[in-house]
Amino acid sequence: MNTGINILCYRSKTLANGEHPLMIRVCREGKKKYQSLGISVRADHWDFKRNRPKRNCPNQLRIEQLIAAKEQEYRETLLDLTTENRDFTPSTLLEHLHRPVTKLTVGELFQQHIASLKTDHRTGYALTFQELYNSLLRFNGHLDLYFSDIDTAWLKRYESWLRGEKYAENTLGRRFRTLRVLYNIALEQGIVKPENYPFKSFKVSKLQRATAKRSITKQEIEQIIHHVSDDAYTRLAIDLFTFSYLTGGINFVDMAYLTVDNRIEHRLVYTRRKTHKLIRLPLQPTAEEILARYADRSTPYLFPILSPAHRTEQQQRNRIHKVITKVNRELKKVGRSLNLRIDLTTYVARHSFATVLKREGVSTSIICESLGHSSEKVTQIYLDSFENTQIDEAMKHLL
Q1: Cβ(22)–Cβ(9) under 8 Å?
Q2: Residue 249, CB half-sphere, CA atoms under 13 Å: how many?
Q3: How many angstroms separate the CA atoms of 208 and 188, rounded?
Q4: Predicted confidence (pLDDT) per residue in 133-186, tens digit
Q5: pTM
Q6: How far is CA 360 from CA 171, 353, 363, 384, in A?
Q7: Backbone torsions φ then ψ of 6, nearest 5 degrees
Q8: Helix (H, G, I), strand (E, B) or coil at 53
Q9: What is the pLDDT of residues 8-45, one digit of tens each?
Q10: DSSP per-residue letters across 302-359
């Protein structure tokens, strides 16, 4: 259905000064809607055939520029709605263009979002935004600016500044992806208008380099599991690595927070702290043996990472950082003794979980080859959509 957009001098209404308001008229499916442009002209200064101001009209050039800009604005919005296959009426088209914009600066939204993430106990993700906030402060000197000030030229200047500071390509990609997330939040909250969006022309994808694979083979996994050590901390490192591998590549922070309540019969049920996704996975015999080794009635936690003594969030973060540093140090020693081609860390278990299943012929609709940030959401969506029996069957291929 065609939509008509016209600028006209609305003679049906005469203002106190004898002028008529200029209106934009939207026609669709026999319905009409008018919206004032906020300016008015005298009837003898308006060409009603061409719907344009006459040459003798005061401020003729400025009025024509305004009309052209408004027509372009409406037609672009119309094109966006049509491209997105969204139905609309003349009223909703006008509402879409004239939504009120909340006056909130970039710095204010940063602080609000960081506080919100901390309230949700997503401290790691909050740190990502805090790092970007600090970086932008160094680059721009202040963040007392509006999101409409962040245009393509501004983003290019920030990119040049980061390169001048010798940041790695993937760091640049992470900074701009995080900034894009914040800009999208600003759009959702009506803080900035869609037509100001700079990431249509500034492509963040160009800043991402493929990260080297951090996975090992099934045979190498078995070598790690059966590696013998008399050192208690080395044994803990191997057990945590093995448990992660056998339970869907659970990351270290989520393992640290596991309690007896997350063990339901022969399944591990927990909510990922990063994505708030509910995970349900079978506990294989080897994983249950590991849990039995660390069973301790004096603490609700399944592993000796956190304890009831770590009461505050900061204490918990400090403790997790301390333990993961030691665990990864021990894992690297194990990896060197086994002549592995990559540094062994807890994150290798996460990647290897996916890669081993893929190599064993498990459908990519159940598990993706990579569990990096670019595909984690997709992977979890697929896992959520399958019955437990299908996931159980797939995970039999791990050992």
Answers
A1: yes
A2: 24
A3: 25
A4: 999 999 999 999 999 999 999 999 999 999 999 988 888 989 999 999 999 999
A5: 0.56
A6: 33, 11, 9, 21
A7: -135, 145
A8: strand
A9: 888 889 998 999 998 888 887 778 888 888 889 999 99
A10: SSTT--TT--SHHHHHHHHHHHHHHHHHHHHHHHHHTT-SS---HHHHHHHHHHHHHH
